[in-house]
Design brief:
The protein is an alpha/beta fold and 323 residues long. The chain is 36% helix and 17% strand. The protein contains eleven helices and twelve strands. The longest helix is centred in the N-terminal third of the chain and has 17 residues, at 70-86.
Amino acid sequence: MKLFKNVPTQDTRNPEKRVILTGASQRRMMREKHWEWAFFTCLFMPQPMYLACPMETIVNYNHTKQAGNKGDVWKHVILLSVMEKMLPYLSRSSSVHYFETHCGRCSYILSPEGEWRDGIGTCSSVGKDLADHPYFRIQGGSTEVGPSYHGSWFLAAAYLRRKRRSFRFTLCDISDEIETSVIKYKTQNQEEIDFHCTDGFTALKKEVRRQDLIFIDPPYFPPDSLNDWQSCADISADRALSPIPFVIWYPLFDEENPQRLIDYAGSPGYEVQWKTQSGKKKMRGAGMVMGNCDSLFGKDDFMVLKRVAEHLGGRFHIRGSQG
């Protein structure tokens, strides 16, 4: 029996955006063996068009407009907080092994119509308590159009380089554009990065190498965001049995899906919640499942998260398991 409701019916990071199927999506459909739909789209839809696509993994998602928004700032602050807390427990004689299921490009140029103004744009004048945090030391605050906003794995790599730690990253995504961006970075910086142009959930289940931190960051993209919620629940239940830290980003549209995910994971969710107009089906917050790593956080860390939430126009909330 499925645990999750298939909500929302919009793109969680751009509610007004409809699903677009492109030629690149058709090629990925063939690669992922969804040949019936690929044949249909090539035969009857030679030009890019809007389509209620049945498979989330074949949708072309563009994060450019959403880069640096509230959800991005929140997940990146927590991601680097976890990495900072766990690093002293890892041997300096071995590389830090990091796995990301749904990675993005190295960085994104902040556009005039982007959502970053309500996200990283509100953090240009953070106090000393936040300025010393690794996220703000690397990313900084942006108040003008033009500066770049860095992706999750790029921030993690930059932090480890500053700490003079070697690392091995395993990154997954189905986007050809992202694959090109990652390979270019790897070539220029001679870093140990393995990129798999495939579904991150599938790759993680097959991964047999040791990992020190796993970041699960699906798009929860319509028309079948249900699969992402269910896959996160399945993986979190499996990973809860091991001591390896993992974090899962999730959007807040309703109470049911986040609570069920937290109950399934058996770990708390650190959330930022902000107000939305009554009756509007918009994202009203975001959270991170703190799998096997919540014990690393203390009172001072919670104060930092509270301050970040305030900068984002919201409040800090810890969602506990009810199971």
